[in-house]
């Protein structure tokens, strides 16, 4: 009798052990996602002929179907068509697809009206940002290699197009240039319930390569083609800025500072006229704040100290 109980206990322990092993291994069983350059087909293309009229700077803004008001605010402010010192600046929005027919129609209508939407057929969810970014780079590679520079940024950003243009001209770099808010010593987050959790299966190494915060980075347009070219041979990771960093590492392109002063603010920055005249990008700006800041900047007569 006692022996039988012991045997039962053994069997029980063994089963628990096997289950534990099974669940600890489970994440390793998912199929690896292999990125394909030609993933999806273009559904919307923006209204521009880069061969005829090459822009100096193209701003690619990751956006979603729900962010129509952010796009409206951006079109009225930094995303307007600009000519800065005789150089053309254009802004386009990057979108995927949703199952919602109403939203799908609204985006098609918006694209028809504004001609500023780049869209491919992949599911528009946060963790498809890498696909969205790569779509932007693919678009530059195929349709607009004539642009001098490209900026990839988000919908909740303030971008100072004039200052950025000024700094790019001053920097006088034309190829293999990549800049933004530098992240040179970042480590994968291994805590399971963190939004940015990355499993050892997805990324087995202990450190990320140098990259720039995805809130806003700028590069010479040749980098778009080069990153696009190596993208299939780099391990896929859902964090788009890290993925681009992996591509850059493979290309031996090192992210650099744009200016001696800090100009990219991924953690946000309190608004002041003089401050915002001398920055390139600031995160956490609502559409309403953006419109207000813009109005203040455009109408201000304030003399700002030279920095
Ligand atoms: C990303 O998009 C693809 C293609 O639509 C889809 O199969 C995949 O499930 C999406 N990823 C996530 C995390 O939902
Ligand atoms: C920019 O760099 C080129 C060479 O790379 C040089 O010939 C030119 O003078 C530079 N222009 C300015 C404004 O510094």
From TrEMBL:
<keyword id="KW-0735">Signal-anchor</keyword>
<feature type="transmembrane region" description="Helical">
    <location>
        <begin position="7"/>
        <end position="28"/>
    </location>
</feature>
<keyword id="KW-0333">Golgi apparatus</keyword>
<dbReference type="GO" id="GO:0008499">
    <property type="term" value="F:N-acetyl-beta-D-glucosaminide beta-(1,3)-galactosyltransferase activity"/>
</dbReference>
<keyword id="KW-0472">Membrane</keyword>
<keyword id="KW-0812">Transmembrane</keyword>
<keyword id="KW-0325">Glycoprotein</keyword>
<protein>
    <recommendedName>
        <fullName>Hexosyltransferase</fullName>
        <ecNumber>2.4.1.-</ecNumber>
    </recommendedName>
</protein>
<dbReference type="GO" id="GO:0000139">
    <property type="term" value="C:Golgi membrane"/>
</dbReference>
<dbReference type="GO" id="GO:0009617">
    <property type="term" value="P:response to bacterium"/>
</dbReference>
<dbReference type="InterPro" id="IPR002659">
    <property type="entry name" value="Glyco_trans_31"/>
</dbReference>
<comment type="pathway">
    <text>Protein modification; protein glycosylation.</text>
</comment>
<keyword id="KW-1133">Transmembrane helix</keyword>
<dbReference type="Pfam" id="PF01762">
    <property type="entry name" value="Galactosyl_T"/>
</dbReference>
<keyword id="KW-0808">Transferase</keyword>
<dbReference type="GO" id="GO:0005783">
    <property type="term" value="C:endoplasmic reticulum"/>
</dbReference>
<dbReference type="GO" id="GO:0006493">
    <property type="term" value="P:protein O-linked glycosylation"/>
</dbReference>
<comment type="similarity">
    <text>Belongs to the glycosyltransferase 31 family.</text>
</comment>
<keyword id="KW-0443">Lipid metabolism</keyword>
<keyword id="KW-0328">Glycosyltransferase</keyword>
<dbReference type="GO" id="GO:0006629">
    <property type="term" value="P:lipid metabolic process"/>
</dbReference>
């Amino acid at each position: 009798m006692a022996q039988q109980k012991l045997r039962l206990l053994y069997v029980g322990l063994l089963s628990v052990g096997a289950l534990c092993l099974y669940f600890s291994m489970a994440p390793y069983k998912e199929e690896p996602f292999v990125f394909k350059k030609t993933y999806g087909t273009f559904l919307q293309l923006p209204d521009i002929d880069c061969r005829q009229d090459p822009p100096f700077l193209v701003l690619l803004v990751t956006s979603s179907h729900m962010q129509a008001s952010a796009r409206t605010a951006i079109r009225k402010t930094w995303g307007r068509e600009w000519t800065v010192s005789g150089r053309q600046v254009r802004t386009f929005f990057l979108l995927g697809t949703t199952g919602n027919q109403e939203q799908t129609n609204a985006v098609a209508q918006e694209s028809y009206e504004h001609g500023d939407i780049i869209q491919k057929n992949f599911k528009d969810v946060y963790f498809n940002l890498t696909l969205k970014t790569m779509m932007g780079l693919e678009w530059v590679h195929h349709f607009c290699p004539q642009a001098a520079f490209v900026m990839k940024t988000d919908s909740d950003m303030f971008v100072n197009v004039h200052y950025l243009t000024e700094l790019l001209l001053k920097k006088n770099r034309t190829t293999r240039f990549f800049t933004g808010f530098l992240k040179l010593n970042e480590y994968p987050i291994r805590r399971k319930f963190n939004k940015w959790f990355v499993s050892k299966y997805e990324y087995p190494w202990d450190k990320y390569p140098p990259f720039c915060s995805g809130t806003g980075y700028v590069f010479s347009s040749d980098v778009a083609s080069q990153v696009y070219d190596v993208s299939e041979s780099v391990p896929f990771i859902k964090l788009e800025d890290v993925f681009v960093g992996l591509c850059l590492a493979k290309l031996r392109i090192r992210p650099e500072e744009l200016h001696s002063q800090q100009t990219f603010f991924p953690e946000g920055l309190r608004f002041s006229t003089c401050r915002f005249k001398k920055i390139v990008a600031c995160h956490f700006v609502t559409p309403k704040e953006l419109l207000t800041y813009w109005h203040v900047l455009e109408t201000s007569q304030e003399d700002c100290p030279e920095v």
